[in-house]
Write a structure and sequence with these properties.
alpha+beta
């Protein structure tokens, strides 16, 4: 029978173009983690507002994009190893939102793109 579960021990090492000498070792998410990430990314709430008379109610959809929450989730679950440091030479801990926030945006975007590519299905 073919295996349909994720090997959480399998990783891929990526040299970072935006941080010469920097690298990340990434692992794939499980499908459950992938679904959790999607749920975090878009929290839709629908509520009605307006007068109570017939035909006067308007539907309002409030969309909250939790980009920081998603980034911390992805970085903490998908980065198995890295050599990235802060200005004082301390290794960054991507389970901490403060460490994700201080990351250079080009480096953060590159890592995010690598995580997305690793967890997306693309028919060849």
């Amino acid at each position: 029978m073919p295996r349909a579960t994720n090997d959480i021990e399998a990783t891929e090492r990526h040299a970072l173009q935006t941080c010469p000498g920097g690298y990340v070792v990434l692992r794939r998410m499980t499908y459950g983690q992938y679904l959790d990430r999607q749920a975090m990314a878009m929290d839709m709430k629908m509520q009605t507002s307006g007068k109570k008379s017939k035909g006067d109610q308007t539907a309002v959809i409030d969309i909250d994009l939790g980009q920081m929450q998603v980034a911390v989730f992805e970085f903490s679950n998908c980065i198995a190893e890295h050599n990235l440091e802060d200005a004082d030479g301390n290794i960054l801990d991507f389970r901490m939102p403060a460490h994700v926030k201080i990351l250079d945006p080009r480096i953060g975007q590159e890592i995010g793109d690598l995580i997305d590519a690793m967890n997306s299905f693309q028919e060849e």
